[in-house]
Amino acid sequence: MLSIRQMEALVWIVQLGTFERAATKLSTTQSAISKRITELEATVGFPVFDRSQRGSKLTPRGEEVLEIARKMLQLQEEVATIKTGSRTGVQRRVRIGVTELTAMTWLPQLIFRIRAEYPGITVEPEVASSRTLYESLQSGQLDIIVCPDVTSDSNVRTVHLANVDFGWMEQPGFTGDCRVLSLQELVSYPLLLQGGRSGAGSHLTMWLLSQRLIFERVLITDSLMAVVGMTVAGLGISHLPRLCFKHLIDDGRLRVIQTKPLLPEIPYVAIFRQDHHSQLMGSLADIMRELCDFSEVL
Description:
Blueprint: H1 4-16, H2 19-25, H3 30-44, H4 60-84, E1 92-98, H5 100-103, H6 107-117, E2 121-127, H7 130-138, E3 144-148, E4 156-164, E5 166-170, E6 181-182, H8 183-186, E7 191-194, H9 199-210, E8 218-221, H10 224-232, E9 237-241, H11 246-250, E10 255-256, E11 259-260, E12 266-273, H12 278-291
Parallel strand pairs: 1-2, 1-3, 6-11, 7-8, 7-9
Antiparallel strand pairs: 3-12, 4-12, 5-9, 5-10
């Protein structure tokens, strides 16, 4: 008879890529995971993994068993909820990854809302760059992430949250008077840029390439607040979310540089794996879409 433990082993081997990682995820040994797969194959009567291939590659019939395994695990979670009569009966942790912009604006409201609607859930937030968050999502270390839209992979579901308006920023007077600058004039100034693992930084880099623009000097940092601080200090120009740092503009510490053309808005999304508790993650993404507000720093 197929068991939930065998199904868990199969799903996590495929999701994480190796028996060893699955064992770590399930807090057991690699030999125990191998035993579960051996028992599973004995029950179904055919191999689910192709031993002639390197890595944990499923056979065609193994792919069919994987889909059944995913459904079994999802049904198990739904039964646990039904037993209590409400969704508040869900007892688990949810690991949410966000970039710095979300952490400094609406993350607290999100945590408060999840605690209110899902008292049995423990929220474990992680703040990192977009690329780091996405890699952690794919490896199973995170359940759902919020970041700029940087992927089109078929094994994830993407839920659009909001478009964030970015503008060129400077210390008042850094580029001279308040006239509208052409992009060619702009590239002669130092650019303060979040690193290549930043989703916002990647969006800007791709846009600059599409405009055939190359800055003469680029200073790179991983931190959004570091970019803000260096811009206020007059070390260069940067692209920052307009509403989020409106208080610095109003205080006269930052000024929006008027350019033609304007910077494009950056879409922010919630992303989760299609095969990982998709019903709950979909509900959380809906909450995120309702609450997301990048207009004010805490």
